[in-house]
Protein: Sodium/proline symporter
Amino acid sequence: MNSVVAVEFVVYLALILGVGFYFARKKMSQADFHLGGKKIPGWALALSERATGESAWCLLGLTGFAFAAGLSSVWIAIGCVIGITVSWLWLANEFRKERDKYNTLTLPDYLATKYATRGKFIRWFSSIIIIFFFVLYVAAQFSGGGKTLNITFGIPVTWGIVISAIVVILYAMAGGFFSVVWTDVLQAILMIITLVVTPIVALVAIARSDLSIASALSSAGGGLDSWTGGAVGFAAGTLIFNNFSWFFGYLGGQPQLDARWMAMRSEKDVKIGAAIAITWTVLAYVGAITLGIAAITLFGTGAVADPEQILPFMLLKMMPPWLAGILLAGAVAAMMSTADSQLLIATSSISEDIIHKAMHKDFDDRKLVLISRITILVVGVIALVMAFTSKSLIYTIVGWAWAGIGCSFAPAVILSFFWKRFSASGVIASLVSGFVTTVIWMTTGLDAMFTARAATFIIAFVCAVLATLLFSGKRD
Structure:
């Protein structure tokens, strides 16, 4: 690989490590380490939320899915954009207000404090769900980093995973929420540049070569030129709904995104953040889908063995080395921006929710921050080992986590915000039924017929409502 690309990438890694260690010099409380202590502007939290929410899933997973599935992938983009818009316009400020009202640092802490009669079980069970799925999620991001470094520099995937993991673990340990958010800002900028510039270059190349996207999709076969993947009738409706169902995971159930809203300083910051986040999202998803379809037109469906490597492949084929280096940094940034947040959320569930609150270990801030840093290291190493052993695609693993976390928590969050009668029994019913549904759906093959994301959300929501109506006032 051209030395220019290598130098740019090393500079990028040094920069984000520098940000992490800069904040490590500052004295931090537990609240600072996990939620920024109301010291971060809304625009930065918005960019951090978007970088965290999209990750390698968008740059590698979604572009790869569009490359493999063609036009039908657009329903994923539509579902995600609507879900993100709804969450920013109707849920973000509620998170800010509820955080201030209950003085909490995490999503499990909020639910356990608000519904204190069953708070102990809520805190333990919700923390276990987060830890379980987020270790998988972090492993998927490390895997994405390994793939990108492999195709970019020829580094073996194993070593690419190790490099990605070491960098993320180090700066997350060093500066906590501060370093995670401010490195996310840089990463969000790199990601959106990649997702805007590369599709434009690809479309120009298609025009100059006098190629036809429609003809290329039709020639590729496999339903790539169909908005329903070639399916008709009920099967077409199912495909559209299954792809659109990513929508449900954005409705307040992702703790790593909720943390950005909880950290907002004011309603004004939320409004500024919403404008930035929604604009970023539309550009990013249009870019990701366009990239996948343009790749089919320019290079054919057999261009890469692994569809999730199509973005790095395109950058190296189409861009001058100096620009490829910058844009490839955006692909690695996508992985890091989510992995760091997942590490921090898993850590907060262990150090804050379990050790500090559930086990009532009243250490001072200095010891709590030290425990948090040690926990980041331990969780990161476990995720690293899983990244070596798992053969699942990024898209698949993120689908698991999106259902198991987002669609289990989302009904509880929505009902806690907008239904005064909602109870502790409803919270427990949402979490337990959501977790069980996800595991059953994903391990029995039901997900191939009807997506676990929708099934989990619907079942968890119904169970939460029924439990509240049946058991409120008895033990709540």
Observations:
- The chain has 17 helices and no strands.
- The mean pLDDT is 86.
- The two ends are 62 Å apart (CA to CA).
